[in-house]
Structure formats: structure tokens, C-alpha cells
Amino acid sequence: MAAITMGPLTIKRIEALGFTVLIVGAILLAATLWGVSYRFQENIVIPTDGYYAYKLDGYEWSVIQFSVKSDKPVTVCITDDVGFRIMKSGDGALCLFKVDGTTKVDKIWRFPKNGPLYMVIIPDSSGGPVSISLRLKGGLILW
Length: 143
Prior knowledge:
This protein is an alpha+beta fold. It has helices at 8-36, 81-89, and strands spanning 38-46, 52-56, 63-79, 97-110, 117-123, 130-139.
């Protein structure tokens, strides 16, 4: 039987492949740790006629994972700059993602475009302030 030996050309290819994998891994790790990812958790109280808005930064390749729990029904809306200006003027909500009249939302959502979006939480009831627990995780999420 003949012995199989690896020539210098094959070893160079393996080294090149390893170097490429190392560089790609370093880029993904840097993107995850260097400001692309964020985590946010807060308990808030919204008055009956008010709303809560949180600015979400992201890119087409990033996602957000969020959980909203409230003691009274709320509307959860994710919108862009135009929709947020329309909402603030009182002309209704123009949402890219919307859930009406809920007390609990758990969602993983991919950004549809680059740039900032806004998560807006609006109370649906007129029975006093609404207590909300909000958890947000965004960016490049590696499960």
C-alpha cells in the first residue's frame, strides 16, 4: 500500500481556509460586541392619554426580540420616522408591525430596512394608567 502524504500545496490551502474562517468569525464577534447589539429592560407606567416610544437602531440583517407585558390592553406598534410623525400629530398609527388590544406580546422580528425604527406602546383602555414590563434585545442575535 502506498502512503498518502500531504503536499505543500494542500497544507497551504488548509491554512488559507482556517485563516478565512478565523477572519469571518472575528468580524461576526466584533459586530456583536461593538455597538450593534443592545439589551434593554424596563418597567414603565403610561398615563391613559399618553404613549411610550423607544428608538430601535438596526440594519436589514439584524433582528429584535421583544416582550411586552401589561396589566391592561395596549397597542404595540413598530414604525419608521414618517409613521412616528403621523402618530404624534394624532392622525392614527402607520405601523410596520402592530398588535392591538393585547396584554402580552413575545416576538422576534427582522428589521425591514436600515435605519432607526420606533416601538410605540399606546394604552387601549381609559381606566387609568397602564403598568408595562418591556424587554428588548436587538442587533445580531446568536441563539
